[in-house]
Amino acid sequence: MFIIKYKKIFISISIALVALSLVFLSTFGLKFGIDFKGGALMEVNYTTTRPAQADIETAIAPLNLGAVLIQPTGDTGYIIKTKDLSEQEHTALLSAISEGGKNAPEEKNFNSIGPSVGNELTRKAILAIILVSLAIICFIAFAFRKVSKPISSWRYGIIAIVTLLHDVMIPVGLFTIMSHYYGAEVDTLFVVAVLTVLGLSVSDTIVVFDRIRENLKNHSSANFHETVGHSIEQVYPRSINTSLTVILVLLCLFFFGPSATKYFALMMTAGMFFGTYSSIFLASPLLVWTEEFQNRKNRNKK
Asked: E strand or H helix at 31, and its extent?
């Protein structure tokens, strides 16, 4: 009952964090990477042993080419994506990955590439998110149709979408800070992280809502806010323990993994943390707040 008793504080914290994220986003903006802006693609093949990817990254770093994507290909090759390169930068890059001339690779391909995530794909992604959101509302409204009192079943779906926006906006705000101060760029891994956070967040929220639904059907408490509080007490150990397990793995990836996945791990860690927070400290209090608002509205009508 502690969470329900202080629901206004927890809701206010979420509103403040989302507002702060929007301020960062509007002030600093996001830097888009090669996948969005396009650049140059180089494919090389080593005749002997392929150097470790970390060694290639270290060799390229002094060239100050910005974000560089390095992907192994075949048994002895690499695909390297960079910003558009001048002929001088192209030559310097080839020299840097040749290990001082001791292991010069064969350049199989070098050309300019367009953005792999274009305007059309972006529009389709936005449309897909809107359709998925509507599908979530419809699904939850159908699943909760037998417990439509005291809260209409479709309101559960609306609140689930609100928590999704909360869980995405705060990590994006954090990434905006990383982008402004440390040069982090939006790439396909960023998109993957956002979509993954969406899936994990709605899953956790539905677990909490499902427990509330079962307790409402069983009439476990005299009123709605007691039912919600009792339901949270039943599920929060499971939600927190599950999230902590995933967060520990993501932190290991952040501290010990390759540099290419550090920002992905950071986004996922923030998404998991705030997704768990929202399912317990935001979604359920919003249900109680909605029920109280609805009761006041009905009393005023009388």
From this structure: strand 31-32
How is residue 221 annotated by DSSP?
A: S
Residue from 154, 149, 118 nearest 136 by CA:
154
pLDDT tens-digit series, residues 137-181: 788 778 777 766 777 778 888 888 889 889 989 999 999 998 888
C-alpha span between 294 and 2 (Å, rounded): 22
Residue 41 CA to residue 255 CA, distance in Å, equals 29
Q: Are 89 and 68 in contact (CB under 8 A)?
A: no
Domain 39-113 class, CATH top level: alpha beta
Q: Is the pLDDT of residue 14 over 90?
A: yes
Q: Is 71 helix (H, G, I), strand (E, B) or coil?
A: strand
Q: How many CB atoms lie within 10 A of CB 283?
A: 27
Angstrom distance (rounded) from CA 77 to CA 42: 11
In degrees rounded to 5, what are phi and psi of residue 65? -90, 5
For 184-204, the DSSP string reads -EE-HHHHHHHHHHHHHHHHH
Instruction: Using the structure block, give the residue that is written with the tokens 């075949």.
Output: 74
Mean pLDDT of 39-43: 86
Where do the structural domains in the chain lie, given as residue ranges?
2-32+117-297, 39-113
CATH domain 2-32+117-297 topology: Multidrug efflux transporter AcrB transmembrane fold (1.20.1640)
Which residues partner with 72 through β-bridges?
78
Task: Provide the β-strand partners of residue 77.
Answer: 45, 73
Q: Are 290 and 155 in contact (CB under 8 A)?
A: yes
Cα–Cα distance for residue pair 196/201, rounded to 1 Å: 8
CA atoms within a 13 Å half-sphere pointing along the CA-CB vector of 165: 12
- Asked whether 170 and 277 are in contact (CB, 8 A), the reply is no
